[in-house]
Q: What sequence folds into this?
């Protein structure tokens, strides 16, 4: 494990980071995901040494760096504003951290050239940075941050406030940096960024780490109402416990008077259920009469998505299904059409009410 964060706390009037613990392994793309004001950027500043914690410890490669200065930590950090030096050209911006470390001119020249070629900015090395595009400045800032070969790359909302094409380019660039072996910790409020990039996610809310796990774990198996809603779960309903069948199926009442069946332990509590859109099967009739979760309703909306279509069915509440364009066309699905939305019991996730 390259980084171990153990019970880190920081207290301010009106806000606290509370006993944050997680580990990051070599090659991870670790995403700190949460709403504005959750404490994400504060935690990043503690990790890189700009803010001292009130409690806990931070180990980097097994060495306690909790109270080490920022210059003593082998980390590179890129803030949202990039902090490009406007009075320096591209070459000198990338070379700056190497000069601070008093590397020889030969080492600096070789490293700057290597990074410039890697980020496709070699033709800009002697250009004034004030005349460059936002995407070019992003590349320069990333190259400068990686110049000293840091053990960790820390990113604070690097993809916010960029246009769609630049956003896609930067996603590809960050993915490439990580695949080349750089371990990344990335702060964001955008769950789509987390889906695209992360291998592991920590969800922060009000200064607490409320869920930690792989991307699949967090998005398919949220452990709280907050995580489910924040990560974009649409099929999310409050339920009231009803009964347990002999085969272990739990039945609970949905808001529209129907029951939904699922597997869960413990089972004698009220709470919430959620299930991914892609697990909702649409049909004009129920082929398997033993299907326990088949809800009849009317199509009220169809939305084109990046991959396929989202179909919204009114079954007393809105149930969302994601299907391919081929399936949409083959079934002739259109607004006003009566359909069944079927969900297998084993894909329904139960979240106890806290």
A:
């Amino acid at each position: 494990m390259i980084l171990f964060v153990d019970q880190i706390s920081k207290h301010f009037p009106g806000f606290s980071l509370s006993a944050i613990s997680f580990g990051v392994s070599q090659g991870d793309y670790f995403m700190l995901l949460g709403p504005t004001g959750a404490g994400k950027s504060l935690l990043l500043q503690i990790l890189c040494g700009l803010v001292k914690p009130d409690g806990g410890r931070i180990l980097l490669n097994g060495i306690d760096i909790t109270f080490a200065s920022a210059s003593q930590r082998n980390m590179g950090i890129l803030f949202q504003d990039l902090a490009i030096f406007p009075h320096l050209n591209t070459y000198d911006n990338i070379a700056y951290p190497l000069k601070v470390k008093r590397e020889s001119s030969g080492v600096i020249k070789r490293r700057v050239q290597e990074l410039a070629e890697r980020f496709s900015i070699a033709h800009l090395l002697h250009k004034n940075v004030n005349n460059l595009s936002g995407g070019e400045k992003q590349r320069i800032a990333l190259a400068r941050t990686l110049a000293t070969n840091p053990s960790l790359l820390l990113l604070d909302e690097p993809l916010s406030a960029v246009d769609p094409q630049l956003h896609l380019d930067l996603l590809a660039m960050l993915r490439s940096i990580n695949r080349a072996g750089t371990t990344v910790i990335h702060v964001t409020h955008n769950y789509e960024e987390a889906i695209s990039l992360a291998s592991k996610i920590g969800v922060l809310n009000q200064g607490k780490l409320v869920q930690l796990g792989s991307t699949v774990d967090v998005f398919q198996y949220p452990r709280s109402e907050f995580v489910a809603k924040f990560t974009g779960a649409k099929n999310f309903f409050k339920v009231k416990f009803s009964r347990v069948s002999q085969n272990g199926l739990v039945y609970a009442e949905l808001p529209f008077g129907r029951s939904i069946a699922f597997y869960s332990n413990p089972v004698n509590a009220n709470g919430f259920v959620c299930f991914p859109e892609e697990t909702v099967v649409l049909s004009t009739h129920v082929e398997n009469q033993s299907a326990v979760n088949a809800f009849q309703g009317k199509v009220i909306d169809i939305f084109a998505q990046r991959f396929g279509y989202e179909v919204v069915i009114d079954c007393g509440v809105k149930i969302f299904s994601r299907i391919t364009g081929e399936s949409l066309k083959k079934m002739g699905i259109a607004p006003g059409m009566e359909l069944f939305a079927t969900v297998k019991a084993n894909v329904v996730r139960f979240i106890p009410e806290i």
